[in-house]
Amino acid sequence: MALVYRVVRQKYADRPLDVEGTRLNGGRWNPPGIGILYTAEHPALALVEILVHMPRVPYAELPAYRLFTLDIPDDSKQVFTAADLPPYRNENSYVRSQFTLREWLNNPDVLAVGVPSSVMPDGSNFLLHPAHPAFGQIRIVDEKPLVIDERLRA
Question: What is the mean predicted confidence (pLDDT) over 4-12?
Fold first, then answer.
């Protein structure tokens, strides 16, 4: 098994494996209509991936978050490097990155796909596909409040 980390708003903490938000809105790697679970290889990367989308939110107005540690089957993942993927930094649209994984999105032959973080390219995010049979084997091994140091918002 392998550990990955997921940050979830407190109000959704009762359903940490839910993909409804990404199904409705899409994301960097999935178009609307296909929900996947975004996770990171380290808690710090999971935090940075959240904060990058909230650049102007004052510290006092940040929502409460929970950090989940998930155990996924180690034998059901594929990891891509930046060289394996088309460049996607500084694009205004996610169309290219969504198109890149279209085969996996439509026919998930592995549970998890590792992709370089656009925020920290030396780190990996793991995309988990709920249509893969191993999705039901994901175990939540830890859950705790995500404490965000106020100095990160200064």
Answer: 96
Whole-angstrom Cα distance, residue 21 to residue 53? 15
Neighbouring C-alpha atoms within 13 Å toward the C-beta of 88: 25
Statement: residue 154 has pLDDT above 70: no
User: Looking at the predicted structure, is the pLDDT value of residue 24 above 80?
Assistant: yes
139-145 and 112-116 as β-strands: parallel, antiparallel, unpaired? unpaired
- Alpha helix stretches (DSSP H) within the chain: 20-25, 43-51, 95-100, 102-106
Give Cα separations from 122 to 50, 80, 119, 148 (angstroms).
17, 12, 9, 22
Per residue in 40-77, pLDDT (tens digit) is 999 999 999 998 888 888 888 888 999 999 999 877 77
- pTM of the predicted structure, to 2 decimals: 0.90
Q: How would you class 58 by CB atoms within 10 Å of its CB: exposed for 0-12, middle for 13-18, buried for 19 or more? A: exposed
Cα–Cα dist 104/107, whole Å: 5
Question: CA 22, CA 35: separation in Å to the nearest integer?
Answer: 5
Give DSSP secondary structure letters for 58-90. Answer: -GGGPPPEEEEEEEE-TTSEEE--GGGS---TT
